[in-house]
Design a protein that fits this description.
Largest sheet: none
Helix content: over 70%
Structural class: mainly alpha
Mean pLDDT: 78
Low-confidence stretches: 211-215
Shape: globular
Order of helices and strands: HHHHHHHHHHHHHHHHHHHHH
Distance between the termini: 45 Å
Radius of gyration: 22 Å
């Protein structure tokens, strides 16, 4: 009965278009009321504030608001435009170079923001018109930007890795290391797709540039500090904010009081959304555990897989690719990590490898319809309809599915540098 109420209310609210945090929270509250039938309402509901408080007060989750703030600071400081100019000077003279610029800059900005939609928003205003001017159709230009932005949740520092690590109790540093090669491979896949698409197009090139360029130190500070054990991921996020403010205020003179106010408001709003989802998903997981539904699902999956890690990952990929079309990555991680992680442990799968596979799946979900967030951001910037961008997304999707299979079935891709 509890399971029927939990899933029934969740699906109903999702179908009605309620925000995912509301779906998770209200379905959990309904199930908790059913579980506590016959007890005083005050006693039943007293568990809610305790669970919500514990869910949102983990030290490791402090990295999320800091990385969000850091990404907003970098955007308002003009770093995104300077990254694009740097990439254009390096690659713009190559046929199809603008597509390469789009992907390369997405990878660089991913190492700053840690967010897919933030990457699309920050770079798309400049890159999408540039791609169209270079000869790519508007649909493919928007699709490539949406897919490139998805790399932001794989290449460290990644907010999704922080979320997964907090749920699965895995090392955030190891997860960041594991995301480097898969993220770069996703970039290579998109470049190949863009080159193939551009072979029959009349693509324009830029004059070969020379001269000194400014050095963008943000990724070096964040990643070098983490991997060099100078500071933790949470401390790295705070340091990146401090560095970004110095650059934006004193070097580029792009950030003033008004922009600082906008940065803080945007960062607080985004952080509140993530924390709201975190609390709702924690209640959802609590009900699953109390009702022993997680154990039932674990036994069911072990029976289906027959002890085969290959079959297990087929299930994981299919489920997450479908879920990614409808759920944001944070919600999906909170729902599916507690279900998949115990099964993976039984099958001897490294939790770091599992986390990488899950996040690559969810990165693909960021640019797959009908609810791919990156698609809507790119459509808004490119002023095209979602139906148009769907056609352009096919080459990018095929390229990333190939990378997903490689990351899934060659564990060394994600774990080769993990100590």
């Amino acid at each position: 009965m509890v399971g029927i109420v939990l899933l029934g209310v969740f699906v109903l609210l999702l179908a009605l278009g309620a925000p995912i945090a509301v779906c998770l929270g209200m379905s959990s509250v309904g199930a908790i009321l059913v579980q506590g039938a016959g007890k005083p309402l005050e006693a039943i509901m007293s568990v809610l504030p305790r669970l919500c408080s514990s869910a949102s007060s983990k030290f490791v989750l402090l990295a999320i608001p800091f990385f969000i703030l850091s990404g907003n600071v970098m955007e308002k400081a003009g770093i995104s435009g300077r990254l694009i100019n740097l990439a254009e000077k390096c690659l713009g003279h190559i046929r199809g170079g603008m597509a390469m610029v789009c992907v390369v800059v997405s990878c660089f900005f991913a190492a700053i923001s840690g967010s897919g939609p933030a990457t699309v928003a920050a770079l798309g205003l400049i890159m999408i018109p540039a791609l169209v001017k270079a000869g790519y159709p508007a649909s493919f230009s928007c699709a490539l930007m949406a897919a490139g932005g998805a790399i932001g949740v794989v290449i460290p520092p990644s907010i999704t890795f922080v979320v997964y690590g907090s749920i699965a109790d895995a090392s955030i540093t190891d997860l960041f290391v594991a995301g480097v090669v898969p993220g770069l491979l996703m970039g290579v896949g998109l470049i190949v797709a863009a080159m193939i698409m551009g072979r029959k197009m009349d693509l324009k090139v830029l004059p070969k540039a020379s001269g000194k360029e400014r050095l963008i130190l943000m990724p070096v500070i964040i990643l070098g500090g983490i991997y060099g054990s100078v500071f933790t991921p949470t401390e790295a996020a705070a340091v990146s904010v401090f560095y970004g403010l110095i650059v934006g205020v004193f070097i580029y003179h792009e950030i003033n009081f008004k922009k600082m106010k906008d940065i803080l408001v945007d960062s607080c709003s985004t952080t509140a959304t993530v924390m709201f989802i975190t609390m709702g998903a924690t209640l959802f997981g609590y009900v699953l555990t109390r009702a022993r539904l997680d154990l039932a699902i674990k036994d069911f999956m072990l029976n289906i897989t027959g002890g085969s890690w290959i079959i297990f990952f087929i299930i994981v990929n299919v489920v997450l690719l479908i879920a990614g079309c409808f759920l944001d990555s944070t919600s999906a991680l909170y729902i599916f990590t507690p279900l998949f992680a115990p099964v993976a442990l039984e099958l001897g799968i490294d939790p770091i490898h599992l986390g990488t596979v899950m996040i690559v799946n969810l990165a693909i979900g960021l640019f797959t319809p009908p609810v791919g967030v990156n698609l809507y951001v790119a459509c808004g910037i490119g002023d095209i309809k979602i139906e148009e961008i769907t056609k352009g997304i096919v080459p990018c999707l095929l390229a990333e599915l190939v990378i997903l299979l490689l990351v899934t079935y060659i564990p060394g891709i994600s774990t080769m540098f993990v100590g």
